[in-house]
């Protein structure tokens, strides 16, 4: 019985790290906002203004809820393969949301001279710093989920080789 707990502890720690990272990314991005005035026009920067930022917040919130619920599922269930597939889906969704958010963040930081878009991070630096922090937390969550998938695959392969 002690071996079961020792085998479950690494997965529990990884899931807690993933939960902390996804909750942090959601809260940081969801609460970041800043107002600025540019050429006499006042504008507000927040995550609701960009579909990519909304997608990032929604995917991290979904991953947070999924991880929280999964922390109450017993280790020895018949749903192991299904959980592995869902973990892989969460990893891919987090990766896609980070990619979208990173593209918009890069555009906000550097602008696009070909399209005539000016960088805004010089006008709203606190917002851009919060976006960067949320992206870092998102990267931690994504890497943690990748490790969870690899660890689960390793356990599955060991289980299959023991049976044969």
TrEMBL record:
Pfam families: CASP_dom. Keywords: Cell membrane, Membrane, Transmembrane, Transmembrane helix. InterPro entries: CASP/CASPL, CASP_dom, CASPL. The keyword Cell membrane applies. The chain crosses the membrane at residues 12-32, 52-75, 82-105, 133-153. Its main location: membrane. Homodimer and heterodimers. It is found in: Cell membrane. The keyword Kinase does not apply. One of its GO terms (cellular component) is plasma membrane. Belongs to the Casparian strip membrane proteins (CASP) family. This is CASP-like protein. It is a multi-pass membrane protein. Residues 7-143 form the Casparian strip membrane protein domain.
């Amino acid at each position: 019985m002690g071996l079961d707990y020792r085998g479950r502890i690494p997965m529990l720690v990884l899931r807690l790290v993933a939960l902390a990272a996804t909750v942090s990314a959601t809260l940081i991005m969801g609460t970041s906002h800043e107002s600025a005035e540019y050429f006499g026009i006042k504008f507000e920067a927040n995550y609701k203004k960009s579909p990519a930022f909304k997608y990032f917040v929604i995917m991290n919130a979904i991953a947070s809820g999924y991880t929280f619920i999964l922390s109450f599922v017993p280790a020895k269930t018949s749903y192991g393969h299904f959980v592995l597939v869902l973990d892989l889906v969460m990893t891919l969704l987090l990766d896609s949301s980070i990619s979208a958010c990173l593209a918009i963040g890069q555009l906000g930081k550097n602008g696009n001279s070909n399209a005539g878009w000016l960088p805004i991070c010089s006008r709203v630096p606190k917002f851009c710093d919060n976006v960067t922090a949320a992206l870092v937390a998102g990267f931690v969550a994504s890497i943690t989920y990748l490790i969870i998938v690899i660890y689960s695959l390793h356990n599955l392969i060991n289980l299959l080789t023991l049976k044969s």
